[in-house]
C-alpha cells in the first residue's frame, strides 16, 4: 500500500502544503480581530463624527436630510463611496421609511455621479451587515457603492500593502461632488 502524499491530495493536515496557493496578509489581523470592536457607540463612531466636520475634511460628497455620502477612506477603487444614515443604527431594518427612501435615492445618485465623472463599466453595491457579515464598522449601517472597470483588479493591496489610485482622495471627492450636481 502506498503512503498518502500531500502531492496527491490524499489528506491534508495543518501545516502540510495543499493544492491552494495563499496570499498572506498578516497586517490585516489587527483589523479583523479588533477593528470592528473599536466602535462601541456614537461617541467613537467615524460615521457619526464625519457630518460634524467640513465636507473636505470628512470626504463628504453630498448631504441629504437623513443620510449622506462620503468617500471610503480605504477604497477598493477610486470613487468608492459609502452611503450612511446620520442616525447611529446598525441594521438596514432599523431605518425609518424616510431614511430608507433617501438611502436608496442617494445610492442611485451616487451611481449617476460616478458615471458622469469616471464612466465605470459597472458597480458593486453592497451592505456587509453585522460583524459576521464582514462589516468593518458594524455599529453604523453603511452601503458601499464601488465603481468597476474591466481589468481593475490587482493584488497590490494584498502583496505590497499598496493601492494604485491615480489621484488623491481629496481630488476624487471634489470631482465626484462636482459631478453630483451635474448628474
> Mean of residue pLDDT?
82
How would you sum up the major sheet? 5 strands, antiparallel
CATH topology: HIT family, subunit A
* Number of helical stretches of at least 4 residues: 6
Residue share in helix: 25-40%
Strand content: 5-15%
- Sequence stretches where pLDDT stays below 50 over 5 or more residues: none
Order of helices and strands: HHHEEEHEEHH
Apparent shape: globular
CATH architecture: 2-Layer Sandwich
Summarize this structure as a short list of keywords or feature phrases.
single chain, about 180 residues, alpha+beta, HIT family, subunit A, five-stranded antiparallel β-sheet, 6 helices, 5 strands
What does this molecule look like?
This protein is an alpha+beta fold. The protein has a single domain (25-182), classed as HIT-like (HIT family, subunit A), CATH 3.30.428.10. Helix content is 30%, strand content 14%. It contains 6 helices and 5 strands; from the N terminus they run H-H-H-E-E-E-H-E-E-H-H. The chain has helices at 29-34, 46-49, 55-58, 97-118, 156-159, 169-182, and strands at 60-63, 67-71, 81-85, 122-126, 143-148. Strands 1-2-3-5-4 form a 5-stranded antiparallel sheet. Helix 4 (97-118) packs across helix 6. It is globular, with a radius of gyration of 20 Å.
Helices and strands in order:
Blueprint: H1 29-34, H2 46-49, H3 55-58, E1 60-63, E2 67-71, E3 81-85, H4 97-118, E4 122-126, E5 143-148, H5 156-159, H6 169-182
Antiparallel strand pairs: 1-2, 2-3, 3-5, 4-5
Helix pairs in contact: 4-6
Amino acid at each position: 500500500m502506498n503512503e498518502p502524499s500531500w502531492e496527491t491530495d490524499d489528506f491534508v493536515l495543518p501545516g502540510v502544503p495543499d493544492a491552494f496557493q495563499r496570499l498572506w496578509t498578516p497586517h490585516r489581523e489587527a483589523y479583523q480581530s479588533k477593528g470592528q470592536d473599536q466602535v462601541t457607540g456614537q461617541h467613537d463612531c467615524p460615521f457619526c463624527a464625519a457630518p460634524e466636520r467640513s465636507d473636505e475634511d470628512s470626504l463628504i460628497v453630498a448631504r441629504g436630510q437623513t443620510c449622506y455620502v462620503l468617500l471610503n477612506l480605504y477604497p477598493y477603487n477610486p470613487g468608492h463611496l459609502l452611503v450612511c444614515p446620520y442616525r447611529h443604527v446598525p441594521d438596514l431594518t432599523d431605518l425609518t421609511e424616510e431614511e430608507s427612501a433617501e438611502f436608496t435615492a442617494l445610492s442611485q445618485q451616487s451611481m449617476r455621479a460616478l458615471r458622469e465623472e469616471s464612466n465605470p463599466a459597472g458597480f458593486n453595491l453592497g451592505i456587509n451587515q453585522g460583524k459576521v457579515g464582514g462589516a468593518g464598522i458594524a455599529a453604523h449601517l453603511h452601503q458601499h457603492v464601488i465603481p468597476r472597470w474591466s481589468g481593475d483588479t490587482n493584488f497590490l493591496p494584498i502583496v505590497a500593502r499598496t493601492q494604485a489610485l491615480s489621484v488623491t482622495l481629496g481630488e476624487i471627492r471634489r470631482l465626484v461632488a462636482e459631478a453630483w450636481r451635474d448628474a
